[in-house]
Task: structure prediction
Amino acid sequence: MPALASSQLPRRRYSLGLGLSWEVLRYFKYWIIAVLILSFLGPLALSRYTDIDLSAWFYTANVAKWFSAFVGGGFVYVLVPSLIAAGVTRRELAVSLGVFGTVWSAGIGAAAIGGLLTERFYYGAMGWTQAVELNEATAPIGTWGETLGFAAVYPLLYLAYFTAGTVIGVASYRWDGTGWLLVVPILPVLFSLDNALYNTKPFGPGWLGFLGRFVDEAGRGLVLAAIVLVIAALAASAYRILIDIPLRSKKA
Amino acid sequence: MSFSVNLRDVTLKYGKEDALADVDLTLEAGKIYGLLGRNGAGKTSLLSLIAAFRKPTTGQILVGGEPVWENAPIVSRVALIREGGDFDDSDTVKATIETGHVRLGFDADYAYKLADKFELPLTKRVRELSRGKRSVLAAVTGLAARAELTMFDEVHLGMDAPTRDAFYKELLAEYMDRPHTVVLSTHLIDEVANYLEEVIIVDRGRILRHEEVEAFQGMGATLTGPAESVDAVASGLEVLAEQRLGATKSITVAAAPDAPTRERAAAAGIEIGPVGLQDLFIHLTEPGKNGA
Amino acid sequence: MFDDGTPIYRQIADQIKAEIMNGSLEPGGKVMSTNQYAAFYQINPATAQKAFRELVDEGILYKQRGVGMYVADDARDKLAADFRERFFERVLAPLVREARQAGIPLTDIIDYLRAQEGALK
Result:
C-alpha cells in the first residue's frame, strides 16, 4: 500500500493515484529490471549463434499490455476493501484509479517508445535488423519516423488494457465467482482492435482476435477512435460498478 | 469534535432477507457504547452501514449530523475495525500501518508505539501473522486512526486474555486523552461492561434494548429458595429462566423486584441475587423469545 | 473488584463514603479526578462522574470549578446518620433473620456482642 506523505483531504485522491503508480514500480521492481535486461542483453547473447532480425523490445512492449491489465485488475481488487475500510470514499478511489491508470499508461508508454527508439539505435550500431513479425512474413519497421509512429500508440493501448483489467477486477470483487466473466465480452473486442492497428502477428491467443475481420479493412484513424471509445465505455463501467460497491462481509 | 450517529428507519436486505429492519438508533457524541447480539443478529451489518461500508436498502444514516454515504470529510474520520481487519494480506505489517496515512487524524507515532508495545513484527507479511497478532494489528490501526467515531467489531477474537486486557486499557486511555465516540461489539460482555456507558442489544435485525449500562446492571435478579415460596413471589414478574434442584427453585426475572417484593421474599427465605450482564443478555436474546 | 448487583457508580460512591468515615479522606481534602478514578478502576469516566455527581447532590463533596472535588467539612456528620441507618438495615436485619432460622436465641447474640466489645477495649 502506498506511503502517502499528504493526507490533505481534497488532494488525497490525487496523491493516492500517484502513490499507487510508484507502488507498482516498487512492488514489481525486480521483474521490471529482469525484463529490461532480457530485452537488451538477450539479443546480444543470441547474436553469437544466429542473426538478429526481430525486435526483442516489440515483445516486451506487448507483454506490458497484459501486465497493464493485470495491474489494473489486481490493484483494484485489493484496493477496494482496504482503502474504503481506511475511510476513502468510492468517488475518491475512482479518481485515484483514473490518475493511476493515466500515469501508469503514460509512463510505461513512454518507456515503450523510448525502448523501441533506443533499440533502433542499438540494432543499427550492431548491424542487426529491427523487424516485427507480420501475419504473413517479417518486415522491418522502417525509418526513424516510422518507428516512432509504430510506437506512438502504445500509451493508448496500455490505458485500454489497464482499464479493461480494472473493470474485470472491480466486477470480480463485487460479484464473487461471476464478476470475472466480464472477460468474455471485453477481451475479444479489445484484442481485435489492438490487432487491427497493425498487420503484425497477434501477440497472445490469436483466436481472441476473431472480431478483427470486421475492422481489418477500417482505416487506422477509425480503429484508434474505436479504441478511445472502448476506453471511455470501460472507464464508465468501472465507475458504475465501483460507485456503490459494498464491502464484503469478512465471514459468512 | 466527536461524531454522533443517527439511524432513521433503516432497513438492509441481502436479497430478500432482512439483515436489519426498521432500525432507529441514536448514538450521542463522546460516549462508549457496547453492541451486543448473537451471531447473525445484525451487529456487523449495522456497523457496516454506519461506516458506509455498504448502503442501506432504505432509510437515512447521519454521522456527525451529515449523511455518511460517500462523504469524505466524515468517513475519513470514522474507523470501523472488523474482525481480522480489512487488510491487503500480501502487505507487510509496516505497510499496513502506513495505509493509515490516508486518514485525517492518523497518528503514526502512536501507531508505532502501540506496535512496539504489542510486539507486532513490522517486516512480516500480514498473511504470516497468527490470528491473535492479526487482531492486534487491526486494533492498532483502529486506535491510531484517532477517529471521531471508532467501532471495533469483535476485534478481540484471537487475542489472549492479557492482550485483551491491555487493549481495553489502551482504548480507555486513548478515550480519556481524546474523548470520541466508541462502539465495541463483543461477545465477552462481562469483560468490557465497566468500560461502557450505554449498551445496545441487537436481536434478529432489530434493536432489542438500548439503555445505560446501570439500567442493565439493576435490571434482572435471581430468586432462589423453596419452590412454592419462589413461585408465590414470582407470580406477576417477567420470568426469563428457571431451574429446579429438588425442593429448591431458582428463577431469573427481567426486572429487579421492588421493595415490598424483596421483603416478602426475605421473609419467605428466598435469596435475591444479581444477574450478570452476560446472563441477562443470554436470557433476553434466547431463541423463542421476542415473538420469533 | 466490583460486585454484579449494584451499579458501579454507586459502589464507587460507597467506597468514597467509607474512606471519609475511616479517615483516609479528610474533610476539606481533595478527591482524585474522574479520569484518575477511571484509569485506576478501569471504568468509563462517565461512571466515575456519576458517583461524584451523586456525592455532590448529597452534600458530601463539593466542586471547586476548574480545580477539582473536595470533601465537605460536615461530610462525616452527614454520613454518620446515614451509616447508622444502613448498618441496621444491612447488617442487623439479616443477622436477626438468620439467627432465627438457626434457632439462636437473641440473648446469646447480645452476650456474644458484649464480649466482643470487651475484647476491643
